[in-house]
Amino acid sequence: MSMPQRATTATRSTLTRARVLASAVALADREGLGALTMRSLARELGIEAMSLYHHVANKEDLLDGVIDIVVQEIQEAVAGIEPAPQDTPPSDWKHAVRRRVLTARSVLLRHPWAPSVLETRTGFSPHVVRYHDSLVALMRRGGLSYDLVHHGMHALGSRALGFSQELFDPSGPGGDPAPATDDEALLARMADEAPHIVAMLAEVAREDPDSTLGWCDDQTEFEFGLDLLLDGLERLAVRERR
């Protein structure tokens, strides 16, 4: 059996930060965020781990970098949406914001590990700033005051970037859906302590026999929440102009 080849000088000399980060994104997409370590990334690139430190200072710098790539991907996808904010008819602002948010979500669905990293980042990425600026521009185009836009952006929170924290996590160990039998047992234990939640879940189950605890269709619930917020902002904007 042949031994793995060590990185050559030529390989090391052609390594760039962009290539390191692209490989890190691909590794996380394929194997999950837990698999993204400096050592595993070095193996992915066929280099010694120490060589990575010429391009990323540490794990936090690596995470900042991979999120910047994902948000750049969002920004590029959103940039292709027509019309541009300044050309959007004022009456179409809500639809235009909705399209951009759902476009951002479609990118994040290709990188399911990214939301958990986004929630931990404290720095400002230029791509994040530009993306949010386009949403502000669209709301202003629709006649919303800066004060209302400010409240709206806070209300949207992470939903503006295409993800939200779920009330219940239906996943079992390893992220797999919990078996239906586990759901039924849990509901039985909850009946005395949380009768209203149990009644709600029973109603959902009647409406959708294929549902489970953690019954939510994530996309449907995301769009429901997004539409609720945008409809509310639209009503407040009309009230402001009276």
Word description of this protein:
There is one protein chain. With 242 residues, this protein is mainly alpha-helical. The protein has three domains: 1-56, Arc Repressor Mutant, subunit A, CATH 1.10.10.60; 71-163 and 213-242; 179-207, no CATH class. It is 62% helix and 0% strand. The protein has twelve helices and no strands. Helix 2 (17-31) crosses helix 5 (59-79), helix 6 (93-108) packs antiparallel against helix 8 (126-141) and helix 9 (146-156) packs antiparallel against helix 12. The longest helix has 24 residues, at 218-241. It is flat and about 60 Å long. The protein starts with 8 loop residues before the first helix and ends with a helix. The relative contact order is 0.09. The model is unreliable at 1-10 and 170-178 (pLDDT under 50).
How is the topology of this model organized?
Layout: H1 9-14, H2 17-31, H3 38-45, H4 49-52, H5 59-79, H6 93-108, H7 114-118, H8 126-141, H9 146-156, H10 180-190, H11 195-207, H12 218-241
Helix pairs in contact: 2-5, 5-6, 5-8, 6-8, 9-12
